[in-house]
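[[Per-residue structure]]
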Amino acid sequence: MSQNKPPSELQQAVSALHPYFRQAAWFSLFSSLLVLAPSGYMLEVYDRVVNSRSYMTLAMETLLVLAAYVLMEMLEWVRSEVMHESSLALDRSLSHRVFTAIFEANLKRLPGGTAQPMNDFRSVRDFLSAPVLLALMEAPVSLVFLVLIFAISPVLGWTAVVSAIVQTFVGWLNERSTQPPLLAANRSAMAAQQYADGTLRNAQVIESMGMLRDIHRRWINKQREFLGLQAKASEHAGFYQAISKFLQNTVSSMLLGLGAWLMLRNQLNGGSAYMIVASILGGRVLAPLVQIVAQWQTVVNVRGAYGRLDNLLASVPARPPSMMLPAPQGKLQVESLVASAPGTQTPILKGFSFALQSGEVLAVIGPSASGKTTLARLLVGLWPAANGKVRLDGADVYTWNKLELGPHMGYLPQGVELFDGSVADNIARFGDVDQAKVEAAAKAVGLHEFILAMPQGYDSPVGREGTMLSGGQRQRVALARALYGKPAFVVLDEPNSSLDEQGDVALASAISKHAAQGTTFVVMTHRTSVLGVADKILVLRDGQAQAFGPRDDVLKAINEAAAKAQQAATAAT
């Protein structure tokens, strides 16, 4: 027995807005009915005022119609405010979720890990107060107008019905002709934007090697493809929009002429004034459809944005609430670890285990592409393991709520990233700045005196991506950030790649000092300066553990193996 598919997360969020939609629909109903006020005013002027020649009647009728206009505009304003509030409600319910989904998709290398879903979310949110949605709400009132036209004359009524059907058919043709090129244009626009973003990130390389002309030519090609598709969609939309407006104008005149013909045959109910009323009502019947056709590109764009956003939220489901765990002490267990990069099946780490006690320092060494950076990402819970576990104090690091674990964790990635803000903000991880802890972390890495010499001290801005600092200074600030608050577990991936000799000494001293206070360290390194403070060494090669144990024992085994290899090479020659 088949079961209905449960609503998606985005569908549930939109369904929660139904109270707003119902309120706006009622306001649309009453404001649309007030559109009849000019017709009623015209009939009263022709009937009462002209026949009675009363100035008082004219004044009262005029005041009534003015009051109707004021009420209609007030209802329109309230309706727009209701729909604006619905967009704010959607933002409150989903903005954080969309942001975290983008963040996790980027970590897992899934589609959607860019800024585009945030643009899609803004498109969906803004659509709630867009004119085309308000026109959709006004469409049911057209049935009331049709009933009134039928009351004047069935012939005029059926003419209006046929016109509405033709107008709907024009809208369907507009959909068929504009959707494919418009969706393709959106994809091309996103590709061009991503290409431009990548160009800006690598501006130094492009400028230094004279690549700007060729890079610009490629971007221009992508941009022209986008503009060409957009122009094609606009041409189709403009063509059907013109047809739609032509139909609306034609129907109004047709109903007027047909009403006159019926009047001459004495087949028009209500007299001559009602042929004008029928003409006006016929235009109002088609008005919502005309506006929908005119705004159909917005509908197509929002539909694409909605689909992409829905897919992102489905591919990165919200994490269920977990039980709060006690603060870790730094005891690490790696159990039969097998892992690959997200989205791939090729294993990078191929099954090994080791354990560290609180306060121990592990140096992970090995050639490039041996799996050191992958191991670092698994140790801090960024990537999931295909098999095995990484446990900190017995708890799975990957499933541990990072908002709880983060303050007790330090991480320095291979590619150092600082964020626009002050030095103190970056060291304090953009939380509440505890100046004493910030200075303690800076002193631990030998950065305190340098920061004090800056124009604004710890309040000095680092610039976008830390451009106000040198490579070594950025690395030290990032190292201070990793050590901020004396975390229980710290992972450093090539922490001395940009450091000079003085920086190496400060790094070794910081590791030794914090390890003595109970912090567990795992340091991925190519350089030997860190080995002096390591308690244990793990040797990785091709994703496998070649050796693990106390530092001196592993180094001795490595030296003996190197000596044997040298002897064998000498004997062979």
Observations:
- The first strand starts at residue 332 and ends at 339.
